[in-house]
Amino acid sequence: MIQKYCYLLFFLCASFVQSSAQVKDTISTVQKNKKTVLFRKSIIPVSLIGVGLLLNNSDLEKRWQTEIRNKVGNEYDFPIDDYVQYIPIIEMYAADAFGVQAKNHWFDQTKYLFMANAVTSIITHTLKRTTQKNRPNGAEYSFPSGHTSFAFTNASVLYKEFEGSSSLLAYSGYAFATTTGVFRVLNNKHWVSDVLVGAGLGMLVTELIYYFEPFKDYNPFMNTQNITLLPQFSENEYGVYFSYSF
User: Fold this and answer.
1) Which listed residue, 93, 100, 149, 175, has the most CB atoms within 10 A of its CB?
2) b/e sequence 4-33, b meaning 16+ C-beta within 10 Å
3) pLDDT digit string (tens) for the chain, length 246 residues
4) d(CA 213, CA 224)
5) pTM of the entire structure?
6) β-strand partners of 240
7) What 8-state DSSP symbol labels residue 134?
């Protein structure tokens, strides 16, 4: 009788050890896959930053800027870049309102959007004040482009949220972000290197935010269906739109 209990105990222990090993292997595989995806998706933003650093303050980008301004005219100024940087944010919340399947709840979207923009903004403005690079038009704080880093952060959040449900929607934000960067150069507000590094920073920071998912489990609105809380942006102001349905 005792021998049977020993066999049973041995069998249970062996099964537990095997199950634990399988769980650990699964967790390890998932972590490795996440790291592989992060590495793969970091190639483009890191490349943009690298090329931007190589071009920074070079004679080549100065010649490019002169040639561009000669083609569009030295008085050219079309401030569309002040507005299209916000379109990916509008797209994301509009998609939520129309019921397009997103990766995360609207509060988590807002949470990651805020954190990604906060980190990107800190890095961008720190570099601006550290490098002290002048803009093509003579103004201060050129490197990197804040408009571009903001636009590509927004576009990257939009992409992360809808890449699994709507490729067209997911990639559309990058069209508006690219437009922002292009017109920063055309309007003589930034050099090409400023735009490339700004774009790379926005994309890379967003990838890291979605990889680490800070405050992942914090969502006081997860089980609330009748509350809508959306951020609002303008050129110099930030606010929040709150709606409660009775």
Assistant:
1) 149
2) eeeeeeeeeeeeeeeeeeeeeeeeeeeeee
3) 544 444 444 443 344 334 444 434 444 555 668 889 889 999 999 999 999 999 999 999 999 999 999 999 999 999 999 999 999 999 999 999 999 999 999 999 999 999 999 999 999 999 999 999 999 999 999 999 999 999 999 999 999 999 999 999 999 999 999 999 999 999 999 999 999 999 999 999 999 999 999 988 888 887 765 555 555 555 555 555 555 555
4) 21
5) 0.81
6) 231
7) P
